[in-house]
């Protein structure tokens, strides 16, 4: 009797030992896989946290391979966080600020380089009083280097940078990636040398052109790709931070990030990322658009969930996703809430069903991939479109015959800006300047949407 008990206990102990050894081996293996060599001491390094690093000793920060120690420090932290992450991410409490800080909200405006497929706004037509940051989209990574997409893009970059003469405080960033130019990221994340080289080369390019920083718009790390990219992405941001925050460069780092829970959970290590970015632009749009697997109408950018939405559907709105980012550890003042100036179109299955979650058979035929700019929305409304306002989600939609559009107007954007202000987020991002009514076609002043956001932020 006792003998069988003892042998049972022994075999359990042996199994536990074997599991323990396998676990240790796997952790070590994954660290090696992530680029940590065995010479990187993971426990004995100490020093100030990266965000408290003293930048006064500029010579220590010459980019390149001169500061192995500093980098080891950075990576040892990453390694420790990595092992913690294996036990699940830490949840941060969403606390309401007791005291309103005197916060100057960032007003980040995307500007899309003129092309035939998108509203053709010239740099000279931009109203510089609207934005604190202009982000030019989009550049790509080619051969490990930051590079323009079109031949004439650099001329446009120069023209936008010229705007700083009118507004010296304006910051101009270059966005790399975007939904269609982010294949290059794979070539610069794999090894430490690749990441380091990209950080140095891109900083030099930005300085040469006269930019104030970068906007990393990879849609999305580890998404339909190996899970390891999640860690490599964070290490790329670390490397950018290490080079860009050299006082000789002093470049801004922003990241355009996803709003959907499944992508956030897979792509980002939020609390770790927070140390290496000046701000993230939370892309608070495309929550619904026509999908063959979900052929129903829906809001492009709802502020709140509707009472008839549950489970996943109750997470696809600005309020939910913004607080999710806070909960995962991104400081509120670094969260810049992205709002659209464009709308999403649908073709209804039956014109008599024109509410929310009505059956649709496709995206609209106007616009680009079913997306339309605000002047097109105005024309739609002027030609028989009927506008309704969703009292729960706080956004309008409009329909006429088989056409159905979800969009934002002065009313919804002003409300969203007020919500940003009263919740102390870091500011507002707009995608994009091009889709606002910059030619005053709607007849309510130029850039009416962005101006309504300014009203919401200040009154
Ligand atoms: C700069 O580096 C030197 C030598 O490492 C050190 O003695 C000094 O305290 C550093 N200065 C600052 C401001 O950190
Ligand atoms: C907020 O900032 C403005 C402008 O810088 C300043 O005039 C005002 O006194 C500040 N208010 C508080 C409460 O600090
Ligand atoms: C870097 O730029 C920021 C503004 O973007 C400024 O506040 C800061 O003082 C600068 N730091 C250095 C070391 O030049
Ligand atoms: C917005 O999100 C906060 C934090 O999760 C929550 O407390 C609040 O009830 C939400 N508001 C609405 C209207 O859903
Ligand atoms: C035009 O702008 C004013 C504020 O400048 C706003 O009150 C009004 O609602 C806008 N009109 C339309 C049709 O959006």
Automatic annotation (TrEMBL):
Listed Gene3D superfamilies: 3.10.50.10, Glycosidases (3.20.20.80)
Residues annotated as domain GH18: 105-459
Keywords in alphabetical order: Glycoprotein, Glycosidase, Hydrolase, Membrane, Signal, Transmembrane, Transmembrane helix
Keyword rRNA-binding: no
Any GO BP: carbohydrate metabolic process
The keyword Signal appears for this protein: yes
Any one GO molecular-function label of the UniProt entry: chitin binding
Gene Ontology CC: one annotated term: extracellular region
Residues annotated as transmembrane: 12-36
PROSITE patterns tied to this protein: GH18_1, GH18_2
Family statement: Belongs to the glycosyl hydrolase 18 family.
Protein's UniProt name: Acidic mammalian chitinase
């Amino acid at each position: 009797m006792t003998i069988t008990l003892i042998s049972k206990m022994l075999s359990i102990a042996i199994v536990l030992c074997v599991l323990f050894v396998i676990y240790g081996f796997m952790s070590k293996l994954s660290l090696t896989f992530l680029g940590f060599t065995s010479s990187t001491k993971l426990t004995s390094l100490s020093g100030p946290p990266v965000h408290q690093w003293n930048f006064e000793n500029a010579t220590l920060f010459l980019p390149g391979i001169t500061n192995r120690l500093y980098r080891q420090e950075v990576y040892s932290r990453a390694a420790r966080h990595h092992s913690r992450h294996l036990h699940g991410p830490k949840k941060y409490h969403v606390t309401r600020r007791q005291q309103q800080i005197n916060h100057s909200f960032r007003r980040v405006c995307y500007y899309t380089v003129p092309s035939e497929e998108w509203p053709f706004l010239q740099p000279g037509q931009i109203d510089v009083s609207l934005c604190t940051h202009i982000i030019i989209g989009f550049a790509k990574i080619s051969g490990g280097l930051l590079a323009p997409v079109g031949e004439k893009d650099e001329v446009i970059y120069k023209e936008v940078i010229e705007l700083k003469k009118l507004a010296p405080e304006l910051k101009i960033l270059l966005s790399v990636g975007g939904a269609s130019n982010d294949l290059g990221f794979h070539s610069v994340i794999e090894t430490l040398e690749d990441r380091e080289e990209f950080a140095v080369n891109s900083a030099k390019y930005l300085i040469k052109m006269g930019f104030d920083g970068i906007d990393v718009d990879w849609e999305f790390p580890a998404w339909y790709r190996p899970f390891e990219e999640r860690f490599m992405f964070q290490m790329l941001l670390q490397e950018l931070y290490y080079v860009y925050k050299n006082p000789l460069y002093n470049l801004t780092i922003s990241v355009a990030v996803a709003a959907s829970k499944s992508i956030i959970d897979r792509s980002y290590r939020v609390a770790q990322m927070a140390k290496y970015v000046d701000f993230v632009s939370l892309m608070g749009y495309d929550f619904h658009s026509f999908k063959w697997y979900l052929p129903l109408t829906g809001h492009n950018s709802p502020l709140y969930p509707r009472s008839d939405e549950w489970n996943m559907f109750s997470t696809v709105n600005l309020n939910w996703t913004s607080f999710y980012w806070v909960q995962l550890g991104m400081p509120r003042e670094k969260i810049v809430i992205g709002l659209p100036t464009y709308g999403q179109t649908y073709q209804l299955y039956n014109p008599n069903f024109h509410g929310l979650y009505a059956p649709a058979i496709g995206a609209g035929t106007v616009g680009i991939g079913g997306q339309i700019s605000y002047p097109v929305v105005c024309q739609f409304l002027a030609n028989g479109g009927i506008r309704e306002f969703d009292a729960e989600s706080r956004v309008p939609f409009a329909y006429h015959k088989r056409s159905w559009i979800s969009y934002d107007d002065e009313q919804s954007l002003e409300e969203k800006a007020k919500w940003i202000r009263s919740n102390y987020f870091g500011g507002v991002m707009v995608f994009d300047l091009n889709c606002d009514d910059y030619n005053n076609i709607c007849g309510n002043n130029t850039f009416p949407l962005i101006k309504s956001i300014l009203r919401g932020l200040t009154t």
